[in-house]
Amino acid sequence: MNRLQGVSGAMEFPGTVRRYDGLAIFFHWAVFLLIAAAYAAIELKGFAGKGSPARSLAMAAHEWTGLLVLVLAVPRLLWRLVRGAPPAEPGSRWMHLAGEAMHWVLYLFIFAQPILGLLTLNAGGHVLTLPGLGLQIPAWVGPDDALKDQLEEIHETLGNAFYLVIGLHAMAALFHHYMLGDNTLRRMWRR
Ligand code: HEM
Ligand code: HEM
C-alpha cells in the first residue's frame, strides 16, 4: 500500500485519521483531569466548615493539583512546539481560526492560572509545602495584603470565566463528533 509522510513526520496510510501523537493525547487528558480535580477541590472547600480539617485538605488538594497542571504545561507546550498538530479536519476558514485561537487561549490559561494561584498564596504570606515531606516551593513574592487581594480577584475571575471557555471548547469537540461526524474528537482520543 502507498504510504504518505505526514506533516508531523510520522508515516501515515492515506484515508486514516491523522491523530495527535500519544504524548500529546496523554498531556491533554492528564491536564484535563487535574484541572477538573482542582475545580472540584475548590468547590468542595466551600462546603467544609471554617477551620475544619476537610477544608484544609480541600485547599491543599486544590493547590497541588493546580501546581501539577503547571508542571505538565511546560513539557506539553514544548512538545506541541516541536511536534506541531495534525492537519485540521475539513471545515471553513473561520472554524479553523476559531479552533486555533481557542487552543492558544487554553494554553495560556494552563500557565497563567496556576502561577496566579501560587502568587496569591505567597502574597498572602504562605508558601506551598508538600505535606509529610516538608518540601517547600520557594515564594515568588513576599507578603503584601493589597497585592494578595488583587491577585486573588484575578485568579478567581479567570477561574470562573474558564468554566465557560472550557465548556465551549468541550461542546465544540462534541459538536464535531456528534453533529458534523468528523474525526476531531477521535484524533485527540487514543492511538
Ligand atoms: C489550573 C489550575 C487552577 C484552577 C483552575 C484554579 C481555580 C480556582 C477557582 C475557580 C477558585 C475559586 C474562585 C471563587 O471562589 O470564586 C480558586 C481559588 C483559589 N486558588 Fe486556584 N486554581 C488553580 C490553581 C491554583 C494554584 C496552583 C494555587 C496555589 C498554589 C491556587 C490557589 C488558590 C487560592 C489561594 C484561592 C483562594 C481560595 C479561597 O480563599 O477561597 N490555585 N482557584
Ligand atoms: C481543562 C480542560 C481542557 C483544556 C485546558 C484543553 C486544552 C486543549 C488544548 C490546548 C488543545 C490544543 C491541542 C494542540 O493543538 O496542541 C486541545 C485540543 C482538543 N481538545 Fe481540549 N482541553 C480541555 C478539555 C477538553 C474536553 C473536556 C474535551 C472533549 C469533550 C476536549 C477535546 C479536545 C479535542 C477534540 C481537541 C483537538 C481539537 C483539534 O484537533 O482541532 N478538550 N484542548
TrEMBL record:
Signal peptide: none annotated. Pfam families: Ni_hydr_CYTB. It is a multi-pass membrane protein. The keyword DNA-binding does not apply. Its cofactor is heme b. The chain crosses the membrane at residues 20-42, 62-82, 103-123, 161-181. It is found in: Cell membrane. The keyword Transmembrane applies. It comes from the Bacteria. Keywords: Cell membrane, Electron transport, Heme, Iron, Membrane, Metal-binding, Transmembrane, Transmembrane helix, Transport. Residues 19-190 form the Cytochrome b561 bacterial/Ni-hydrogenase domain. InterPro entries: Cyt_b561_bac/Ni-Hgenase (IPR011577), Cytochrome_b561_oxidase (IPR052168), Di-haem_cyt_TM (IPR016174). Belongs to the cytochrome b561 family. This is Cytochrome b561. It comes from Cupriavidus pinatubonensis. The gene is yodB.
